[in-house]
Amino acid sequence: LTNKNSEDHRGTPSSPGRVVTLISRSHYLTLLPSPPLPLRVWGAAYHIPAPHVPEVQSYLDIREINGYSIQYTSFQPADPNLKTIEKCMVYIGLPENPQFLGVQDPDVLARHIWKSKGPSGDNKEYLFMLEQALTGLGEGAGDEHVEDLARRVREVGKQEEGIVRGTEIGKEAVESEIERVKSGSSTREQEETGKA
Questions:
Q1: Would you list the DSSP string of 135-153?
Q2: CA 29, CA 68: separation in Å to the nearest integer?
Q3: What is the pTM of this model?
Q4: pLDDT of 186 above 70
Q5: Other C-beta atoms within 10 Å of 43: how many?
Q6: Which of 84, 85, 143, 148 has the fewest Cβ atoms within 10 Å of its own Cβ atom?
Q7: Is residue 73 a contact partner of residue 88, using CB atoms and an 8 Å limit?
Q8: 114: which residues sit within 8 A by CB, 6+ positions away?
Q9: Using CA atoms, how far apart are residues 193 and 101, in angstroms rounded to an integer?
Q10: Contact assessment for residue 157 and residue 124, using Cβ atoms and an 8 Å cutoff
Q11: Higher confidence at residue 184 or residue 15?
Q12: pLDDT tens digit sequence for 9-36
């Protein structure tokens, strides 16, 4: 999984959000000097009855218009008793697509995701739902990159909320002190009165 811009769902053209896309193993190997290879990439496959394929594909073509293209891959169900699906359609953001971003600094990416929002909602909501969906696929399911990024975004949230709360408290204290000064009663005068 790697990053791509989202100008239509979790961001806007002027402030694109970030979403994930699958990439080929051969491209993955070119991204880092010696990237750790995941044992598997988790996902879900759906069988669409033939009469509904045109309607579903039309919907997905619109939904995935911003940087994804149709590819075909094999899909191995987690249940070893089920056979491999040899031709599974998937929407992938290819590296040659202008929306494709590739590897980014995870802390910079986390801060960007924290603040991004688009017509489909907050970018962080997308990430947290993706994390939950991946870990909910079965025993041992999940994605280390997604889980690490979600943890980093939560940390940014803690820092941002702390700054916001601290700023609001500080602003209230300053406004309160200004009111006391305007009314002719400062904190020092109140303290002196209390001592007498």
A1: HTTSTT---HHHHHHHHHH
A2: 21
A3: 0.72
A4: no
A5: 16
A6: 84
A7: yes
A8: 123, 124, 153, 156, 157, 160
A9: 64
A10: yes
A11: 15
A12: 676 778 888 888 888 877 777 776 666 6
